[in-house]
Amino acid sequence: MLETVLQAVVNGLLIGGIYALVSIGVTLIFGVVKIVNFAQGEFVMIGMYISYYLSTQFGIDPVVSVLISMPILFVAGVLIQHYLIRRVLGLNDLPQIFLTFALSLLITNLSLMFFTANYRTIHTWYSDEALHLGGIYIPYAKLVSFVLAMVLSGALWLFLRSTDLGKAMRAASQNRDVAQLMGINPNRVFAVALGIALALAGAAGSLLMPFYPAYPMVGQVFVLMAFVAVVLGTLGNVLGALVASLLMGVAESLGIQFVGADSGLIVVFVLLLVTLALKPSGLAGGWRK
Amino acid sequence: MIKSNLIYKYVLSLLLVLMVFLPLVVKSSFVLEILVRILLFAFIGTAWNLLGGYAKQLSLGHSAFFGLGAYTSTLLQIDLGISPWIGMVVGGGVGLLASLPIGWLCFRLKGPYFTISTIATANVLMLIFLKFRDLAWGAEGTTIPNLGNAPLMMQFDNKVPYYYILLGLLIIALTITAWIERSRMGYYLIALGEDEDAAEASGVDVVKVKRNIYMISAFLTALAGTFYTQYIYFIDPQTAFNFNVSIEAALVSIVGGIGTLWGPVIGTVLLETTTILLQSYLGNSIGGIQLTVYSLILMAVILVRPTGIVGYFKEKSQARSST
Fold first, then answer.
1. What is the total count of domains within chain B?
2. What is the ipTM score, two decimals?
3. Domain spans, chain A
4. Does some domain include residue B160?
5. Which of A173, A225, A220 minimizes the C-alpha distance to A196?
6. pLDDT for A285
7. CA distance A164 to A67
8. How many contacts, defined by CB atoms under 8 Å, are there between A and B?
9. For residue B54, what are the domain limits?
10. CB distance from A137 to chain B under 8 Å?
11. How far apart, in whole angstroms, are the C-alpha atoms of residue B304 and residue B298?
12. How far is CA A71 from the centre of its chain?
């Protein structure tokens, strides 16, 4: 019994690392640009397809292809900020919500047209290998992705702490007007925030590829998970999103283990709704100004 | 201004008469099918518009009520033999009642997080119907027993009656909208949509207004759910709680003109016409093309003119009358 619980917790933590990369992106965009990015999951999907094609066409290992998917998505983020999101900043909810929502629909359906709805998987040499610790079973693919996810999250945390650009970003998220008065160029900060957030989503996609199938609608799972984690971890808070994502992973995994294989998502949604019911002021407060 | 209003009314009455007599001329079941689709989404869009357009509570979870309406009437019909005509009204009632807890939960949030919580509630409902097989057939769903031409059981051997049911529903929804627009509640709604805090400060009972409009919107959406199940003779959680219903309800309203009486109707006509043109040029073979085009139209509307098509003409006529 204890072993089953431990195994479920380990499984949850491992996938929670990936959720963290997605949620940190959502929370970063929200904190800095004040936009909820409904398309974040689609960038995970793009990261997955990039790694899939690099792996099948050029034999590049998905973990290595992080080095390619991250820069591509960084550039995509900067462009999306510059050409799309910049134009709805300061407007009301409708354009802000439905612009990224339309982007999500567009990317999903374009992928459906170009990649078809088929599931794509990659088989790597370590896909079937696992570490046995006591009675606990830790697949290498998940372990590697988890470790790299934590490294990337840590790197982002250091970046926000210690570099000028990172500090500018945090300043802009705390008070945009004052930050601007201090000589921070908001457009540049926003573009970098979008770039980093999308690069993290791309990394999540690449790291998922060795053990998760890619298909056009795959992003929905991750974006919903990220929304819950971002709410739980207090909007705009990077560390909060990280911890909440790991918890979400564990909650989902325990749900699968003890309620049934198809109930992982129910657990997650119920968690979201319970959070909303019990802690709404913490969510709605502070960010609507 | 008064003159243009009169012309507007004449044109609309003419259009309505035309719609009533249309099936006498149009015999092609292909065209009727398209008309049914247009009326269906114009109706759902009009229902969504009450909440999303006037109160500016941007829900993406209206499939929750669509699905509840569909399941209520189907369960009543198959388990108890009750006619879907009654089931439709009961389903509307279930949707209305369901909007109370859902609203209680989701209205605690504002802006994008309201939208996300509505997506979550619709998903929870779908997962419940998928998971609990004893409740209603689980993931496999069920077909509606075909009784041939049975008007009392809302089954017909041709498409014309379906067309009239929807036309009736749409007229009801538009009448309700027009009536609300002119009532005290309409002003409350517009105040709420413009600025919730300011509306509350001016003495509008924001909680009550939101709850009431959500109930009406949910009731109407649930009616569409019953209709659709009867129309396609099939129900399962994926079709009943289809996310695309939520998307299209919002989309037709935004494209046509959010918070305007005729916005959803005009938006539906535009989007559905686009679909038909696409299909006739490209065939049905390419999956995803319809929503690709819809999302491009949505983006264009948001970036160029967030008030939609009706909003654009309204602004134009206001600019003209003020000069």
1. 1
2. 0.83
3. 2-284
4. yes
5. A173
6. 39
7. 24
8. 127
9. 29-242
10. no
11. 10
12. 16
Dihedral, B128, B129, B131, B133 alpha carbons, nearest 10: 140
Residue with tokens 């926003």: A190
Check B56 against A97: CB less than 8 A apart: no
Distance CA A70, CA A66 (A): 6
CB A93 within 8 A of CB B58: yes
CATH class, A2-284 region? mainly alpha
d(CA A225, CA A247): 11
Q: Look at residues A287, A269, A125, A145 and name the one whose alpha carbon lies nearest to residue A204.
A: A145
Which tens digits make up the pLDDT trace of B64-119?
999 999 999 999 988 888 888 998 999 999 999 999 999 988 888 888 888 888 98
Residue B37 distance to chain A (closest CA, Å): 21
Q: Which residues of A touch B109 (CB under 8 A)?
A: 276, 280, 283-284
- Please check whether residue B251 is in contact with residue B42, taking contact to mean a CB–CB distance below 8 angstroms: no
Q: Does residue A29 sit at the B interface (CB-CB below 8 Å)?
A: no
Residue B185 CA to residue A208 CA, distance in Å, equals: 50
Cβ separation of B120 and A101 shorter than 8 Å? Answer: no
Write phi, then psi, for A237 (nearest 5 degrees).
Answer: -105, 110
The residue count for chain A: 289
Rounded distance between C-alpha atoms, residue A33 and residue A30, angstroms = 6
Strands A136-139 and B234-235, by their bridges, are: unpaired
3-class SS at B195? coil
Is residue B261 domain-resident?
A: no
Partner residue opposite B120 with nearest CB, options A92, A273, A288: A273
Q: What is the pLDDT of residues B161-212, one digit of tens each?
A: 889 999 999 989 998 998 998 888 888 888 888 888 888 888 888 888 899 9
Q: Is residue B2 part of a domain?
A: no
Q: Answer yes or no: is B36 within a domain.
A: yes
Q: To the nearest whole angstrom, how far is the Cα of B49 from the nearest Cα of chain A? A: 13
Is A234 within 8 Å of chain B by CB? no
pLDDT in tens, A58-95: 988 888 999 999 999 999 999 999 999 888 887 788 88
Q: Is A258 on the interface with B (CB under 8 A)?
A: no
Beta bridge partners of A120: A214
